[in-house]
Specification:
The protein is built from 20 helices and ten strands. The model has no long low-confidence stretch (mean pLDDT 87). The protein is an alpha/beta fold. It is rod-shaped, with a radius of gyration of 47 Å. The strands form two sheets. A five-stranded parallel sheet has the order 2-1-3-4-5, sandwiched between helices. A five-stranded mixed sheet has the order 7-8-6-9-10, with helices on both faces. The longest helix is centred in the N-terminal third of the chain and has 43 residues, at 109-151. The protein folds into four domains: 2-107, Rossmann fold, CATH 3.40.50.2300; 151-272, Reverse transcriptase/Diguanylate cyclase domain (Alpha-Beta Plaits, 2-Layer Sandwich), CATH 3.30.70; 281-380; 401-495, Arc Repressor Mutant, subunit A (Orthogonal Bundle). α15 (407-414) packs across α16. 59% of the residues lie in helices and 11% in strands.
Length: 496
């Protein structure tokens, strides 16, 4: 709506104008009226209307004199002059003053509406031009101001900052989104004030606040925090204009610190107040190795969480933290390689180190490494399990070699599949279980033959061979002589 005031010494004219025209429909609103030029001039000063409709002949200060005085105030109001037929000379003066229109009384409603329609178009264009001009001027001003904020360069607009006594910088960022000014101003309309300078740089927005109270700064961040996924970084306050560029360095440093605080929507230097960690990295690494070796998943999680607490409280920079994560990983890799006597491929290690350095939050790094160390623990477990089950099979075989042993029997005994045990045993001993069983039985048969207290067929049965011929064949193949020849040779050597 465009504002209108009516100035006429005749009440019937003022009231008639308000009544005969549907001002709101035309995009206007009558905000006041005056009965003479002096009162009209005062009303113009107070309201700065878009349009003034005034009579010429009025006591004290006539309409043209009022317009002339009003124009000296640099008000951009438009004027429509009302007059009778006998005032043509006044009409010429009105045109000289730059008034838009000159209407004769009695007023023709249709003609006035036509004038108002054309006037509305003109006002809209002027308002648009004025807004564009203001936007451009603000843009240039902000360019100059932020040239100083970010680089310490003093351009023409720098002088605008000289009138302020305190400064604070706020950065707004949103992962994966290029923030524009409208993202912020739609939420926080009050952000556009004379002492606030908003600037878009890269994907981020920066807001320089001048002479603000802590409460007003909190209100800005509170309103901005309504934007989904936005991160807000607030600098400390300085009262020295020469220190303003340091505020930019501060918010950039705080931005990097978002790695430590992935869930903090608003980050300031107060957020980074650190308490000394009760842990030492060397101790945590040592305990982590033990947890991996024993495949204790809960302990691995607990220790990695303690590493996070240690890094947040003790390490100053993100780069240093990532170096420490890398050190921790490589220590565990070395421990695994030495314990298992099996190197991990360099390409695999490099891939994991690359992910550590690319992660954008300490929380995600911790989750990633927990899964890596779960795998390490599982590898330890499976390797130890392989060694343990093979030893168990050996012990069981030494005790029960005389029975009808087979992988099927062992699978039932140890609750594993036949295929699994066969592969595990061969991988560990480089021989099949059947070969191992024959070796145990035949070695026991040698011992019994040396004792010379049993018949050979009895020895065959006692060592698990129910078929004497099969025993004879196996024994001769293993030792190069038959059981009887072995016994004879043994006796002969004993006598000698």
């Amino acid at each position: 709506m465009y504002s209108v005031i009516l100035v006429d010494d005749e009440p019937v004219v003022r009231e008639g104008l308000e009544y005969i025209i549907d001002w709101e429909k035309l995009g206007f609103k009558v905000i006041g009226s005056a009965e003479n030029g002096l009162a009209g001039l005062e009303l113009i000063k107070q309201t700065q209307p878009d349009l003034v409709i005034t009579d010429i002949r009025m006591p004290g200060l006539n309409g043209l004199e009022m317009v002339e005085e009003a124009k000296k105030l640099d008000h951009l109001s438009k004027y429509i002059i009302l007059s009778g037929y006998s005032d043509f000379k006044y009409a010429q003066e009105a045109i000289a003053l730059g008034t838009l229109h000159y209407l004769l009384k009695p007023i023709d409603e249709t003609e006035l509406i036509s004038i108002l329609d054309r006037l509305k178009i003109q006002l809209e264009e002027e308002r648009k031009d004025k807004k564009n001009k203001r936007v451009f001027e603000d843009y240039v001003l902000n360019q100059h101001i932020f040239a100083y904020v970010m680089n310490g360069v003093k351009e023409e607009g720098y002088s605008h900052l000289l009138k302020y006594e305190s400064f604070q910088l706020v950065k707004f960022t949103k992962p994966g989104i290029k923030l524009e000014a409208n993202h912020l101003t739609e939420i926080c309309e009050s952000i556009e004030r004379e002492n606030r300078y908003l600037y878009s740089h890269g994907d981020h927005l920066f807001l320089l606040l001048c002479d603000e109270t802590p409460e007003s700064v909190s209100e800005v961040t509170r309103l901005a925090s309504q934007i989904e996924d936005i991160r807000i970084i607030v600098s400390s306050e300085t009262k020295q204009l020469e220190d303003v560029p340091d505020l930019y360095n501060e918010v950039e440093s705080l931005t990097r610190s978002l790695y430590f605080y992935p869930h903090a929507q608003i980050l300031s230097s107060h957020t980074l107040l650190k308490e000394k960690s009760p842990y030492k990295l060397e101790t945590l690494v040592y305990k982590l190795k033990l947890a991996i070796k024993d495949n204790l998943k809960e302990d691995i999680e607990k220790i990695i969480d303690r590493c996070v607490s240690y890094f947040i409280s003790s390490v100053e920079t993100v780069e240093e933290t990532k170096r420490e994560w890398s050190f921790l990983f490589m220590e565990c890799v070395s421990f695994l390689e030495e314990s298992m006597n099996k190197p991990i491929k360099e390409i695999e290690k490099d891939k994991i180190l690359s992910i550590i350095w690319k992660e954008t939050s300490i929380e995600q790094t911790a989750i990633f490494l927990k899964h890596i160390f779960y795998d390490f623990g599982r590898f330890f477990y499976e390797t130890n399990e392989k060694q343990d089950i093979v030893e168990e099979i050996k012990r069981y075989t030494m005790k029960n070699y005389h029975l009808n042993l087979s992988l099927i029997e062992l699978a039932n005994e140890f609750n594993y599949s036949q295929s699994y045990l066969g592969k595990k045993f061969k991988a560990e001993t480089d021989m099949s279980y059947h070969q191992y069983l024959d070796n145990v039985r035949l070695e026991k048969a040698k011992q019994l033959l040396e004792e010379d207290s049993l018949y050979i067929y009895e020895i065959a049965k006692m060592t698990g061979y129910s078929n004497y011929d099969y025993f004879h064949k196996k024994f001769k193949k293993q030792f190069g002589v038959s059981p009887k020849e072995y016994q004879k040779n043994w006796k002969r050597e004993e006598k000698e």
